Structures
1.
Amino acid sequence: MDFDTRVKLRIYDTVARTTATPTTGEVATALHAPLADVEAAFRRLHAKRLLVPEPGDPSRIRMAPPFSGVKTDFRVRVEDKVYYANCSWDALGIPAALHRDAVVEATDGQTGEPITIEVRNAAPVPRPCVFHFAVPAARWWENIIDT
Amino acid sequence: MLLFRSEESVNRWCRAQGLPVRPMIDLRQLWHLAVTWYGNRLTVDSRRPAPDEMVAIFAGIGLTGSFWDPKADQWSS
């Protein structure tokens, strides 16, 4: 297994277990690897769009899609854990990635009213709602944090 | 991408923001995208779909046209 894959798996294993994204230092310690090597791996994983560093602090992760490194308006409860997602797509991506039932707690984009989506037995429980894409696919990564 | 209770809620939001109404998908379609994108994300072989794969994934749930093409220089909804 190459080094970038080990770093990727460590990031995702950490966030899945703890709900928090690890820093470069934490990954370096866990893998017994030089910090500079992990920093370089983070940059390559960013280039592959598998993580987004925190603006102004590349030692921290803002996004390891579908997980968010910071609290957002998209809360995902899985058993006794609470994860945060980057958007409604990623909110469903968390139970998809974890292969677990989940309850997504979000809000209506217009009214701010709570909307709950339950994922049970590998499928969402049907409920009326729609998802609006304001940005075309070609521009998603121009500003992925706000997309 | 934002979640709304209904299409009417999307329309009101777009009017308030001064934005055009763009494509909407339903819960079934979004779940398909979530599973396709992230179902193996915690595994060794996980990666983001390549642009041509994305086009095929979107087309598989009825989303076609330049809006859904990550390589498009121009687009329309």
2.
Amino acid sequence: MPLQSFARAALPLAVLMVLSAASRADSGRGVDLEFGNALLTRAGGANETPDARGTSWLRLGQRRSPSGNLYSCPLEPPTLQEIGEWEIDGHVQFGWIGTYGDEDNALWSRYVRWDSGLILGLLDLALRRPADGSYANVRASRISSDDAFFDAAFGRAGSYKVQAFLRELPNATSDSAISIWNGVGSNELTLLPGLAPGASSSGQVAAVAAGVTPQRLQVVRSKTGLGFDAYLTPRWTAYAKLSNEQRSGARPFGGAFFYNFLFPENAGALETLRPVEDSTLNFNGGLRFVGARWRMDVAYDGSFYRDTYRRFRFESPFALTPTRPGATSAPIYQGQFALEPDNDYHNLRSSFTRRLPWNGELRVSAAAGRMSQDDGLIAPIDCSGTFGVDIDGSGVPSATNRFLHNCSDWNTPAALSRDSADLRIDTYSFDSRVTLQPSSRLNLRGGVRFNREDYRNTYLAYNPLTGDYGYITENGAQASIQAGALGTWNPLTSPSVITRVRSLPLDRETHAADLGADWRLAERRTLGLSLTTQRNEPTHRERRRVVEDSAKLSFVDRSLDWLTLRANYTWLDQHGDRYVPDPYASAYSTSLPGFVAPVGGVPAFTVDAMRKYDLADRREHKLDLMATVAPADDMTLSAGLRGDWNDYGAQIGRQAYDRTGAHLQWEWQPSPLTHASVHYGIDRARLRMANVADVVFGPDGSLGGPDYPLNARWWAYDKQRNRTAGATLDHRFGPVRIDAGWSLVDARGLTTYRFDSPVALAYFADGLDGARSGSFPATRYRVDSLTLGLSFALSPRFSVRVFDYYERGRVDDWHYLGLDTARVIDHRVYSDGGPQGYTTNLIGVLLDVRL
Amino acid sequence: MTTRAVTLAGTWVYRLALLVVLTLPSVHAQQTREDLARQLPASDLSGEQAQRSARQFLAAPGFALARVADNPLAPQATPVGEKVCIACHQLESEHFTHTVHALGLHAAAKADPAIPVCETCHGPGSAHARDPAGKGLILGFTRSSATPVAQQTRTCLTCHEGGARDHWAGSIHQRNDLSCSDCHNPMARFSGDGLLTKRSINDTCAQCHNDVRMQFSRRSHMPLAEGQMSCVDCHNPHGSLTAPLLKTATVNETCYQCHAEKRGPFLFEHAPVRQNCLTCHTPHGSNQHALLVAPVPFLCQQCHSQLGHPNDLLTPASLANGAHPDERLMGRACLTCHAQIHGSNAPSGPKFHE
């Protein structure tokens, strides 16, 4: 169903439902459950005045939650205005902010867009009608045109709620984009004046790039939504939510014109700037019943993604040169991408729960869904005239000039086996769960689960115009550099070419079962054990069956007044059936009748010893300790220790991935007027992997064989360390409130490697100095920030807030080393210069008015 | 008009009382719980307030079945009515009055005198009123309360069963002895919505999961620290079909909620992408670009050792400032050419080049 038709049908339906009944967002479904922005989380809050009287006359100080955390002090009760039967409370915070320093930096403004000038900090309006429990709320904030929200709700407590929202969310994708193209943000990139498509030298491109002013790129999500929840009766509720999201902007992307590393001064690797212009309509609705014995929930989710563009085109500036002496390359320069296809998603699910004796429950959930798309397919190549290698200089494809090809045989959807994708995945899931409490000291639970994904239809890469199977690689660049490397198989003209000819349906099934028990050792002390087994059965993967067995021990102790201790230990073993390194044969031309093995045999797809880590044998030990301590009535100390150790049974592939961490947090609430906190955390990650280079294209995939010799092995070790620290202080002196915050984020990463011999290296000569190990420059990310705020009440209705938020960021990422001096390196173009450090200061003066 | 006058008079009486209490805190503090118990007004369960109301509404369906909660630790206790509770818990009442619970319960109590207010959650109050210090005589939801956590949650679920809480029984939070009141505090309005214990959802979750919150400050992260997203966009803390409390049946479906363009299906798919987004991405924060779990190209080289170019070891000499720059290492590394790594819908895209 076209999007517009759906919208036309769904919107009136939603509105009708709203009028007849009406919404309440809950944590069980959907997104957009809370609205905020960086101002409110970092610098706002002038209106929030704790009640100096505390929580209770009967007891000084704050009580603690069952887990031991101190409750916050309630805010001062609002002063309500009465209009008829309605009571109104509200305030508006507005004023001026200014940003100074590197305000366009993408790390500083990753998900926030500060515009110096007047802003609406927060409008918060609440209306209540005590007579029947009706209410209406409005919250809104706008710190720039790309960063704002408006959330309004009305309803009657326990009866219905209608909610509508608008929000703008910015996402900076680059602050240093240098484009050698016109049309950034559109789906058509054309080279800047001064550059000839397919005929420019590296120097010419570099000269043009040097004259381009770097620009900031971002993608803005604009969302609107409408939802309702309604009690139809005390037992039945209905709910629905409809939202539409539009994304608009651009981000760094790619563009392949074959290997520049292999063909210096030839080919091309282009970091283009792709458009992001799409919309997604989401609908969710359902009906629930909650009775004394039964509960039921039946719901439908629909999501409809629509991309403004089907294709993204870009021009390559570089000329291509064939490797064959005396020949010429066809002048191809047009690159293309198929952008994400429009897709539809439907999911119908239901859940039934029955109370059982022994305070138990039996729950059965089932769902069926469908993901589908039928986008029109773009042609295999976007060129006119010819592509390939002209060996006789005629410029005309012929039997003798056989490496030159007519674009017209490939630049049309008629060159495809079908003109649209027509793909679908059907999903099914079933889950059943039982919980029982045979005694007050024992809880039992168990469940089974089943998931299935069925791919419908496959795509065959076949060109009825030529009789070829396969596809044109890298926008025709490979065929225009390497004579004959068209990338297609033909039973008559190229019966030994190995190429991809089919899509790969990734059907899979998952079966899982679990059993567990929790023993109450004492009133506030529990020991739990959970046993789980899960069998994953993928198709067209290296394993047909992967089994995950795990056991988890849990211990909770709240028996001491001053301590809550939670400890969890998990042991997990992943194993499976035989690992087949090449399960993809059916998708390649080797599976076609008429295929003739090349001289020397069909090359091994990969090394036999490779174990892809999602399917590999794995042994995991995971430990998590959490403690909440009350050292004094007005303090809470939280501490955590955790470790997750993964050992993979792989000679080649991921071998180990270990993560450990600790954190400590102290909170102090000596009075309703004072709050302070300090926190510190550290965590480390260690990842070990191994690989092996190949030396010849042979049929032997064994490690240590002629194709993958042992001396071509290499290992990499990535270490990451993160430290975070922070402190906050909030205190009131009469009408004056001061607040201060400091935080530090300090991350450091180091990737080292070692290898058996220079054969392992991409550049053999690099290993001739005798060294067998090395490291990349350390990556670093450090952010220091400081907030200082002062709020003072001018009168019961008016208060002023002045704040300063300072942030300094430092970043080093070796991927971008050298790109600060040159964005054009041979036939490579890098539009994005990578993340940059920054220093910024945000100051603001906000007036808070109680309405 | 009369009602307004009564309200005004009540307000002044209250202010006067407040002044006395504030100026004489020591006198107040010297009162024992027993003293307070003796001063309690008579029970008020007459429905008089409902009869006084100028207009009559039916109780909202969500509160129509609200009744006095069971308290197994005080089986003989009987309801006393809100007025009796407020006699001692005046300040609590002031804060509670501005919550959506109070709004609904008060309106419902006016419509149907059988609907209690305080005692809907705290159980019958007579035993507690007689012996305010008696442990467990009133349903409490705090650390010091004698009410078991299971009883606390059961009380809340009396009204809030089903929906988002459908999978509470057996969920990780239930098994770890969490109470509703670890995250929610319905006695005052601390948060914009949801009656949370903290100002926001993220602050509430961070009480226990501060380590996860720290991950959101890494170089690439979801926009939680900026307030644009909350933990419950992906997780349902009340329980779900999955162990990490995801609110959909699979990781990928959770991601597709905001990244619908990745849903496909694509003409050519990348198997681990379809299997699980977390094969390559870490959801909360990463020191790498785009939430990747390891730096490219090593991320890709954990799985790709095919003949040709994917399995060569590249060294810093292949960076842009090195002796022989190589696009397999610089910038986006593998993704410079294999840009449509999440799946390609181009007939010439089996290797995600187009």
3.
Amino acid sequence: MKRIAGNFLAALALALTVVVFAHAALSINGAGASFPYPMYSKWFDEYRKSNPSIEINYQSIGSGGGIKQVTEGTVDFGASDGPMNDEQLKAFQDKHGFGILHFPTVLGAVVPTYNIPGVTGTLNFTPDALAGIFLGKITKWNDPLIAGANKGVNLPSAEIVVVHRSDGSGTTYIWTDYLSKVNDEWKNKVGKGASINWPVGLGGKGSEGVTGQIKNTPNSIGYVELIYALSNNISYGSVKNSSGSFIKADLASVSAAAAGAANTIPDDFRVSITDAPGKNAYPISSFTWLLIPEKFSDAAKRDAIKGFVKWMLKDGQNYTEQLSYAKLPKEVVAKEEKALAKVQ
Amino acid sequence: MAATTTVPSAGPISGSRSFLSRLRDGDEIARLITFLFAGSVVLITVLLILTLWQESALSRHKFGLHFFVTRLWDPAAEQFGALTFIYGTIVTATVSLAIAVPLGIGAAIFLAELAPARLSDALEFFIDLLAAVPSVIYGLLGVFIVVPLMRDYAQPALKNTLGFLPLFSGPMYGIGFLTAGIVLAIMVIPYIISVSREVLMSVPRDQREAALSLGSTRWESTWKVVVPFARTGIMGSIFLALARALGETMAVTMVIGNTPTISASLFSPGYSIAAVIANEFAEATGDVHLQALIELGLVLFLLTFLLNGLARLLIVITSQRGGAAAHA
């Protein structure tokens, strides 16, 4: 009995040393957006394989939470689907005495998805049709604004049921940011945000809530992330871009939107690339960002984070497509590599 | 051992024992510890209100009492009002109690008074199981089973028969106040049955026997003697159900439609206080938005407080009348 206990204690001591040893590794904490979470967790995992001494933990608590926590200083970096606004930047500056930088990591897109009995093909949507439907001004599927872009499709004269996200979400931010850009009435009456006051429609919780509602409700329309639509085999429509062509979202057309906007991207990367120029650009696309403070008091942490971002921009981008995220265009990567020097 | 030796001295002279001896015997320690436990309930409640109050300062100052009567909830324009959410919370809780109270009490009467003991115990086991099912499961059940049934069968049937009432008019999406109320009813029925059954079973045998010996039937003794005797406890079970219905978040948000509306129709999609907090809190970036959500938490607290107080008042009134009837 004694010997067993002795063995047990020895094993425990060994286990503890291993744990302590493992914890001697540098631990970095981040929090924020849930949309890129699968990508980030894959990256952190892969990065750790080549850098076993660095452990990056990420909590996907939502963009709002990420901005709040990095501002409070409870995490080393944040992540967000929408750029921080001027007020939030000022709050960070006031609290810490230095600024915070945005680094785009991957691209996401939002697609219109619908359920119309008898319509199986891909529908084309003009910006005005989408805004009109979500404003509640277009109420029937055979409205000329929809039918005009879908010659040959037999659209029913049924009432349109609009479905939107009820939970605050980066997806809603991108969708409403796009509608605000392409439609003045939307911009003035509704505006953009992670949660907004919807003129019409039913709210579903999460992407699964929206798709569930659409599947269950004939003649409905809603919006989901491209990655969600791809991984769940949900059919979705094409949207007319600023060059006048109807583009069905895929990884290439989303990257094309970022490439189209590359020349006009400001140095702080706080930019919306919805309705971007470019013949093949899908118009409802967006970056998602890492939020990294300009200064670190701990040099080891700073080097580790910079090392990760450098790796993410180069090797990390190779992992994006297997997880259905669109990769950053070369122009943006080059620009970010330069901006990384600002982190001290 | 110490405890047994003091037993004879307990009783009339216990008050004269010195503080020290009572301390040594553990009475004072037990008193103090249990007092702390009981006091912590009050402390937690006070701290909760205080925190909600402090954290919603911005929103309270900006909107004042208008918060309670404003329908608009517009995070993009930072304009917030709670009226639609208060309405949705009260309507769904009312619908759920209207369904759950008669069903739950009826079932409890059967289990306590009429069913054989073995059947009653077996069913009680299932009822306790139902009470332990997580609310997200009820929500999923709502989305996949109740919503399609409502849209395809229940709502058209109601519209065809009772459609002249504004309650059952308008487009039928399957989701909305009525569906949320039904799902809530399913969730709270186990509470009502379980507590009411216990209360009914604890009614003294003499009460039943007295009624029977005076010539009343089994049902008369149950309905006129046992149920009135247990009324306070049954009311308690209804409070528990009401509290759960007011605060339920997950299951409600999955079937209510999440659209801030005030509509006479129970078919209309709506929104409840708990649901909007759960939906918008994580991504609320603006300070006013966040604080308005916290103020909604405060409103829900007040609403629960108010409804509970009203219900308690109802008990006091009815139990006085019941007491008077018993004396007559």
4.
Amino acid sequence: MTEQELIKQAKNGSTAAFGELVKKYEALVAATVVGMLGSCQSADDVGQEVFIRFFKYLKSFREDASLGTYLTRIAINLSINELNRRKRRRLFFVSSDEEGSPVPAHHDDSVNRNETQNLVHKAIKKLDPNFRAVVVLRLIEGYSTDETAKILNVPLGTVLSRLSRAQRKLREHLAPYMEEA
Amino acid sequence: MNERMMNLLYRSFDEKLPPGEEEILSQALVSDEALRAEKARIEEMRGLLRDKTVRSFDPFFPARVMRRIEDMQGAGGNFMESMLWSFKLVAMAAMFLIAILVSQSLTGQSQFSLDSVLGLPQPSLEETWSLDFQVQENTP
């Protein structure tokens, strides 16, 4: 069944069709949300919220944008909201969140895929939310710079300058790992 | 490896450089080994970001989403049903109360009129005369 058919059936109330759409776009939403928030419980919650928002506004989804772009936009907005919530929370409480914890300077030969993923996510977490968003969309999701600008609703020049600065910072954070690797 | 070359190098990954700048960068890449090494590191970093990113949630994510949606739909349905039931109860209670008030108002009334149904006091003959007398007195 094509995506259009699934959307049409979901609009007509088929939860099975909606479930298929969730399965199809889980990876895309996960890459965005986990890229923005790190691998944690709140990322899973935000991921669920993305699809619940989509379900609530399914009838008003006009299909002039691709579903992937539409979900990515929701995911980015909800992730930025979550980051702002975390920031507010940190003003009042000492956070146990791992955000801001340093990237280990060395790694041993047994470094596995999960550890490498953690290193990458920790490096991304050191970036400001706006920089994170361009990194996630452009470098992780693989959107073009034009698409990234449209999703974030910022000028192309802003995306390019944020990308350049973000990559320099990431390069610094990941340098110890890359040099040894 | 100067700052300008670094800027050009980073920009070259995400935008098409103007021909002049592209030429400058190409020449610098040929002559500058450090710049070539930096380019290789950036490529490696971009590869890491692309390939080493988590692309799934915890297991059974779709099931969790669908359960929340079913709960939401169930909660919405129950809310509507409970509202409907509440309004029915209020309407029935109101009808019962009105019936009691009307029957109470009609008890002891000799005639059936709107005033008697609404329980409005009916003036006696003496009250009517006295009102008429007051009007006549106040008329110049």
